[in-house]
Design a protein that fits this description.
five-stranded mixed beta sheet; globular; single chain; Lambda Exonuclease, Chain A; alpha+beta
């Protein structure tokens, strides 16, 4: 199994746990509440979770031009971007695609807890 396949499998497991969070809490809470609940459940399930991880952005000459903060990094490998909005918008997809480009990661996970219907997208670079 290659790295992308492993990340897709990890994304599927994280997505299933996130679905449980959405089923329990429903929609309408702040993103930070979902982030905390998802972290709690992932840690209980044995995953390593880091929240609000800094992600440095470098220019072509390796000069640091800024920082982003990734909502969640699971098992040091999977970038998880969380939203609590009515519906996912193109800029949400662009955001995680940029994170994947910056980190040279082939797969990330975009989750929206704000919609009545749970939204989860595995994103590939």
């Amino acid at each position: 199994m290659d790295c992308a396949d492993e990340l897709r499998e990890l994304a599927s497991k994280v997505g299933q746990i996130a679905y449980g969070v959405h089923e329990y809490f429903g929609n309408g809470l702040l993103e930070k509440v979902y982030e905390s609940a998802l972290e709690h459940r992932l840690v209980k399930a044995g995953f390593k979770v880091e929240r609000q991880q800094p992600l440095k952005v470098f220019d072509e000459d390796e000069y640091c031009v800024g920082d982003y903060f990734v909502d969640m990094l699971v098992n040091d490998r999977l970038i998880v971007e969380l939203k609590a909005v009515k519906t996912l918008a193109p800029e949400h997809f662009a955001q995680i695609l940029n994170y994947l480009k910056i980190t040279h990661s082939p797969v990330g996970l975009l989750i929206n807890f704000g919609s009545y219907k749970f939204e989860r997208r595995t994103i590939t670079a």
